[in-house]
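Handoff note, outgoing to incoming analyst
You'll be picking up this chain. Sequence as last confirmed:
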Amino acid sequence: MTQLHDGTTRGPIPDGFVRNVSKEDFQEALGAIFMPTDQWSNTFTPLVVNNGSRLVLIDSGFSNNGAPTTGNLVANMRAAGIDPNAINTVVISHFHPDHINGLRTKEGAAVYPNAEIMVPAAEWAFWMDDARMSAAPDAMKPLFNVIRRVFAPMAKDVKQYEWGKELVPGITAVDAKGHTPGHTAITIASGNARLLYVADTTNNPLLFARNPEWRLMFDMDGDQAIATRKRLLDMAAADRIQVSFYHAIFPATGFISKTASGYDFVPAFWS
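Most recent structure output, in case you need it:
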């Protein structure tokens, strides 16, 4: 498994970023982990898995569709000795732009032309529904448009998967709904060893694992997102499973321990 850094964005903290916590309390929490309190930094970390017969990319970053400080996945993949043309499968956890835009350049070219693209069936059913797009609030319509730009040219070839199913040998989809209707976590298993890729079950775990009941503005179903977060982090802590995060500080992997009020993220300290 290879964690690959796509980049970082930084900007002002949006009002209502955490819906059930004041901006001042959120800034205090940022200061407690030695982060700037006047801005929010977000990192993006896709994962490549080599199961011995297939190269599988989990989530895809931005390509050249995002901020100038993102879109580094392909360059870092090559630096790690991985040829993007050799990627056999791309597994998408959900349809937010930072996870799907890297499938297609701004100019429209497929970034992984030889890869099968696999997406959660529940996510496809929600976002690719024309009636739902027409009825969506104006603020959500740009997101529907991004999703159509990425997937419409390949729609007939996209493979939809169900939770609980093994997608390729050793890689299984896990129900993680709440952040979006089809949001999916991934377990990677080899013998007795397991890793849990939680995608956006938490944003930065130094904040959102420690405070599992915080309601992030991007969680579409806040109550379900909290329940999912606790369920997956409880499992990771109880079973001592290594965890991979999309939005943790690179290399975005480590372990979870349970505390009286939440969870601690313990980074992995080996290479």
